[in-house]
Amino acid sequence: MAVSHTKRVCQIIKLKPEAEAEYLEIHKAAWPGVLVALSRHNIADYSIHYYRPLHLLIANFKYVGHEYEKDMTGIAADPETRNWWKMTDGMQESFEAGATGSGGDVSWWTDLPEVFRFEGAGTQSQ
């Protein structure tokens, strides 16, 4: 898929309550190789928020490249990222039927549609 502008992505997944402390701790020092892979594949401004009452992880990032699917495949092929996912996937519960883990045929995280955006005067989109 060719993208001529910044694509925003928002995703959710459930964090297993018993994994909360470990998940939050490991994200204080995300593996440098994983961050390099994200950058190399045009991911910018990535953040994950946590809504504790529902054990909900909310990820937001900007894709600034031109070949989204190719870059997502590249991230999934990165060995250090795959090892990171092996560690973190067990701490999460997907909302997607048939999902077996990050990088699988069925998305592990659930993509959410954007319903409103305001970037400043004169830039509202829907």
Automatic annotation (TrEMBL):
Q: Name one GO molecular function term.
A: racemase and epimerase activity, acting on carbohydrates and derivatives
Protein name (database record): Rhamnose mutarotase
